[in-house]
Amino acid sequence: FYTYNNFIAATKYYPTFGSSGSLDVQKRELAAYFANVKQETGTLQYIREINRNNVYCDTSRGIPCPAGTKAYYGRGPLQLTWNYNYDAAGKAFNMNLLQNPDQVAQNGVLSWRSSVWFWMQNSNCHTAITQNQGFGATIRAINGGQECGKGSETQPAQNRINYYKDFCSQLGVSPGGNLGC
């Protein structure tokens, strides 16, 4: 499901992903993206969130949760979550992901594409890395409500940092500053 070819096909929709700024910035962006993917998917094991009991429906933004629709729990490499994210991604892809969020877990290219879309368009992760805000900004954007502001790094946040440092080392680039929440 999480294949190299599906990933490359998905990134073609976002030509600035992993290609903005200096070579070091590009490497940091790829390291940051894959560190978060590694944490979210349990090293590419999970296509769907383990705990599927949460519905993740917030209608306060004017986005409904259609009757009979499956819950908006996390799916894909960055675990796309919440009805409003499925709606926005669906609109970007000209698909109805609000009515059928499970499409993200059924199509490998769409799954990678939803994560790169979130990274580039909806979460400011791309901007955080390319404007030298540090890896910690990506943690806050992806899962900050659960992993940040606890007085010290939670284990999932520390995992992300460790994965990021490891990917940076493999790519031959320093991780930069501001690594934690």
Automatic annotation (TrEMBL):
InterPro entries linked: Glyco_hydro_19_cat, Lysozyme-like_dom_sf
Pfam families xrefs: Glyco_hydro_19
One example of a Gene Ontology biological process annotation: cell wall macromolecule catabolic process
GO MF terms, alphabetically ordered: chitinase activity
Residue span, Glycoside hydrolase family 19 catalytic domain: 1-181
PANTHER family in the record: CHITIN-BINDING TYPE-1 DOMAIN-CONTAINING PROTEIN (PTHR22595:SF192), CHITINASE-RELATED (PTHR22595)
Name by which UniProt lists this protein: Glycoside hydrolase family 19 catalytic domain-containing protein
Organism lineage string: Eukaryota, Viridiplantae, Streptophyta, Embryophyta, Tracheophyta
